[in-house]
Design goal:
There is one protein chain. The protein is globular, with a radius of gyration of 16 Å. The protein has a single domain, classed as Aldolase class I (TIM Barrel, Alpha-Beta Barrel). Strand 4, helix 4 and strand 5 form a beta-alpha-beta unit. The protein is built from 9 helices and 8 strands. The longest helix has 13 residues. It has an 8-stranded parallel β-barrel with strand order 1-2-3-4-5-6-7-8, surrounded by 4 helices. By secondary structure, the protein is an alpha/beta fold.
Length: 202
């Protein structure tokens, strides 16, 4: 299973460059989810990561289609409040467009209108969604069985939870807090990656 890492919006550009450069070999993709940074800062981040050896093919721009296009990225992740995936694919057919969904209806709509993959969550309880009930493994399974495109699980993904999702028909898991809030991001990412690829000791 693939590991997608999602930035948490709490780091400055220099910190993000260091962390992602240090850990990029442990993950399959990095979602740049920085709501409070300008398009210029996002482009600066992408270029710095590229210069530091992080392949652009591993970078996914969250929401900011403009920053993705101008920085030469080929992958975007569209939150539910963002552009309609149909419009994005019509205007930028070269982009791989993922959609963040929270229901079967949303998943089917996005899949039928050009989405290349889905992120569904939050699957487990997570501090970043405090007060909101987790949607659970049953809902994740239903989503995965409702569409023919890849599905990535997100929300509360920690190493101990991975055996619960590893046998589902999903492509992988997306992780935010467990890695980007860790004092040792590389080791945190490596532990999750090992679990996703078969696990040790479970």
């Amino acid at each position: 299973m693939k590991l997608h890492l999602v930035t948490d919006g709490r780091r400055n550009i220099a910190e993000l460059i260091k962390i992602i450069t240090d850990i990029h070999t442990a993950a399959d993709a990095f979602h740049i989810r920085e709501k409070n940074k300008s398009a210029g800062e996002l482009i600066e981040l992408v270029e710095a990561l590229h210069q530091n050896g992080v392949p652009k093919s591993k970078l996914v721009m969250n929401d900011r289609v403009d920053a993705a296009v101008l920085s030469g990225l080929h992958q975007v992740q569209l939150p539910s409040h963002s552009f309609d995936v149909k419009v994005v694919k019509q205007r930028f057919p070269h982009l791989v467009a993922g959609c963040s969904v929270h229901s079967v209806a949303e998943a089917i709509y996005c899949a039928e209108n050009g989405a290349d993959r889905l992120l569904f969550g939050h699957v487990f309880q997570t501090s970043s969604k405090e007060g909101l009930k987790a949607r659970g493994i049953g809902a994740l399974k239903e989503i995965a069985e409702s569409v023919s495109i890849p599905v990535i699980a997100i929300g509360g993904i920690v190493p101990a939870a991975i055996p619960e999702i590893r046998d589902l028909k999903i492509e992988g898991a997306a992780v935010m807090s467990c890695v980007f809030s860790s004092d040792h991001p590389y080791h945190a990412a490596l532990e999750i990656a090992e679990q996703l690829k078969g696990g040790m000791g479970d």
